[in-house]
């Protein structure tokens, strides 16, 4: 809120008053001069005694025209005001009787107050504002209701939180930025140096009587950023100096100096969710009051990847490269969301539940809907693990349920760093009942066979179809098996017959070829020729005579070269062999007809 010195009129920040008939203020927060006042008229009670009703604070921050952060913790009879994170106790408390019981509705207004206008406005010069097209509303009390006591200032935000007080740690986080300026004056120096800083430490004021001491002090001004994952970017700085001169009419003006600080990109964490992705439970567990825990073994870890420089001289050795090392770190989470995959939750038969009694001492809040469950609040990863371990799923009509799928995602810094999607599938194990198998035959008992049938206990097995009529009758199963077996037998028989016919054909072809190569010697008579020996002797004598004649002819022809003699000899030899072979063949093929009788 930012407010200036606008006189001693009431300026309402927040007001809850009667909507009709009466002009009572149930609770109100307003500024009166430089005073900050909170009014609370307690609800009617049987005790007729005074109770604390109006709390007054006198603060310079109310009328200095600067932005300040205000937090008001109300826990009757104690009310604490925090201005820029610093607590202030009221200097004056006024007591009044509680309100009388009534059924009149209240009107809540921000920046003004809804109350009766009697024609005289002692504490506000603003004209009344009509709220109906025909003018003001008139009631039997005689006064007109209108807006009054307008606030003349600036509001950056307003939050009303009922049922829970804001922790001091949260207040510090809201108003105090984790980055700012700091000055640590050394012990050996800094004599006569005064240092002042605003609550957010964005403005640092240093005063000194000596220029040398001031210069030494400014050399120790530092920029601090305590965030684990700071936002990268440029931080602008400005140094403004003012000189105070004594015994001089005018002092020299010192020009301002601008500078900047660069915040580099931090090492981003990688949030990993791990655990059991798929499991099955009996239907009775889903229908029980405990239900089924969805994340019994969930593990949340966060790691950062850093570059490690090599030990050698990397500039001289090009083969040396930087290595990446993953390190586990610990930080907070602010949101974990569990959503249902597929159809939304049916509130009539299923729900997601958390034991809130075990989360009272943690800074985690739970909100549920038909889409899932959302865990919010800044807390450690271990606390979120414990909270998610308590999440259970119930379904008190699991007969028609086969499976359910859920998805879990966690984040840090309002979604700046998001984890992986952890999916869980839960299957329902249905126990088969003997009556369900025989229910289709119960209407016609004459068709039931008299033999005894024993049923097998199927508890602990996951049936593919839990419906009772999904079981195939045994007779139909036998018929199907017989038909398939007969078809397979016919196929095998056909293949065997085709193979046998092919082998028979190949065997007949091989037998025909062998019979064509055999001689038919059934009507053949072989007779030896007695003249064959005489012809052989006679042919040998003729060959010897021819050789002698050829040798005599060779001696007489001396002018023939050795080459020509050799060629002639080869030709003669070839001719002799050629003549001799037909003669021998002719002798062998001649029939001996001396023994034949004509």
TrEMBL record:
Membrane topology: Single-pass type I membrane protein
Domain Calsyntenin C-terminal: 182-535
Localization terms from the record: Endomembrane system
Biased composition regions of type Polar residues, renumbered to the chain: 581-598
GO (cellular component) term, any one: endomembrane system
Major subcellular location class: membrane
Region span, Disordered: 532-598
Gene Ontology BP annotations: cell adhesion; positive regulation of synapse assembly; positive regulation of synaptic transmission
One Pfam family it belongs to: CLSTN_C
Keyword annotations: Calcium, Cell adhesion, Glycoprotein, Membrane, Repeat, Signal, Transmembrane, Transmembrane helix
TM stretches of this protein: 476-496
Comp. bias (Acidic residues): 538-574
Record carries keyword Repeat: yes
InterPro entries the record matches: CLSTN_C, ConA-like_dom_sf
Name assigned to this protein: Calsyntenin 1
Gene source species: Myotis myotis (Greater mouse-eared bat)
Phylogenetic lineage: Eukaryota, Metazoa, Chordata, Craniata, Vertebrata
